[in-house]
Specification:
By secondary structure, the protein is an alpha+beta fold. It contains nine helices and 17 strands. The strands form five sheets. Strands 4-3-2-1-5-6 form a six-stranded mixed sheet, with helices on both faces. Strands 7, 8, 9 and 10 form a four-stranded antiparallel sheet that branches. Strands 13-16-17 form a three-stranded antiparallel sheet, covered by helices on one side.
């Protein structure tokens, strides 16, 4: 911030506030915000009646400035900026901060110049520390163990909700906090995030599970696909192609490579196999992967055009699914982090359509 001549960073509740202050809170019409100055201690501004609750998770600094219901929270934020010598700005704003908050602070602070804080936040959050990686490893360990438990208990006649309930129960039993348990059956597996049409497991059903949990806020994201009963030759071929797509992604990952090149490599392989081209279906209709950490989806992205150079400590999903509308889809997904010697998986790739976990 000092090098960029920025006075302070403004952050609303969410993963970035958690990252920088420890505060676990939620957004509402009542403004809670963190003012992170280039020099001096962090200031938390929050409704007076929420102060005790906010303090419970605050881990950085002790300057909490409450405001009562008839008072202007933006004036309190402006006061914090003045006290920290940052009233002249520029004020960097975290990317997800709501407009009414930015507008209110700008007006209360005398039309302080406002700039994007995205580059500041990304520079910190893109690279995971050993402690962050350890938490993510634990979250992935929980999810793969829960998937292994569920895989052996899926029966004919079950619906998506039945299987998801098994997954959530197993995740809790293993110590994780369930984040999502997407279960796509039969034709619904051809649509990456599913269909509202009810489906049930039957002989020959494709079962696609995309699941994740959190451990101290850090997320896992794992997908597995298999067939209930014997798989057809076509199902096997598509499954093997997707696994090879995952391997192509990992083989392309090298220090300094633009992360978008990973998506380009996978898509080129799929096109040689007769899928696509590009995002066309049947084929891969979404990016190859996404960054992951405190958010399930965060920068950078394994998508064409993302020029972010791959660095040690970056974390991504690897999920180049293939989808044939009206028929079925296969998605395999494992997360990995970059090391000096190449990508390191949090979970091993699935062995086969018969042994997916």
């Amino acid at each position: 911030m000092q090098a960029r001549k920025i006075g302070a960073l403004l952050v609303e509740p969410g993963s970035t506030m958690d990252y920088f202050t420890g505060v676990l809170w939620r957004r509402s019409e009542r403004t809670t915000a963190a003012v992170i100055p280039a020099r001096g201690e962090v200031v938390i501004v929050t409704p007076a009646f929420e102060e005790p609750s906010v303090r419970e998770t605050l881990q950085v600094g002790d300057d909490v400035r409450p405001w009562n219901e008839h008072e202007n929270p933006f004036a309190v934020i402006a006061g914090a900026l003045k006290d920290r010598g940052a009233i002249a700005g520029p004020l960097a704003v975290e990317a997800t901060t709501r407009f009414f908050v930015v507008d209110g602070v700008r007006e209360a602070a005398g039309n302080i110049p406002v700039v994007s804080g995205d580059a500041l936040v990304r520079a910190c959050r893109l690279i995971k520390s050993p402690a962050e990686l350890a938490l993510m490893q634990t979250a992935n360990d929980v999810t793969i163990a829960a998937l292994r438990h569920v895989h052996g208990r899926v029966e004919a006649g079950m619906g998506s909700a039945d299987i998801a309930a098994l997954m959530d129960k197993a995740t809790v039993a293993l110590g994780g906090s369930p984040e999502f348990a997407l279960v796509l059956l039969n034709e619904a597996s051809a649509y990456p995030h599913g269909s509202v049409q009810p489906q049930a497991v039957r002989e020959g059903s494709v079962i696609l599970m995309d699941c994740g949990c959190t451990v101290h806020g850090y997320q896992s994201d794992i997908s597995r696909s298999w067939v209930h009963g014997p798989a057809s030759p076509r199902q096997r071929k598509v499954w093997e192609t997707v696994k090879r797509g995952q391997q192509v992604a990992l083989e392309t990952a090298r220090i300094g490579v633009p992360v978008g090149a990973i998506d380009d490599a996978v898509r080129a392989y799929y096109e040689r196999e007769g899928w696509g081209p590009g995002y066309h279906l049947p084929g891969l209709s979404h990016r190859t992967g996404h960054g992951i950490g405190l958010d399930g989806h965060e920068p950078a992205y394994l998508v064409h055009g993302d020029a972010t150079p791959l660095q040690v400590g970056m974390c991504f999903s690897d999920e180049p699914g293939l989808y044939t509308p009206g028929e079925f889809g296969i998605r395999l997904e494992d997360c990995w982090h970059m090391t000096n010697t190449g990508p390191k998986l949090f979970t091993g790739l699935a062995a086969s359509i018969d042994q997916p976990i």
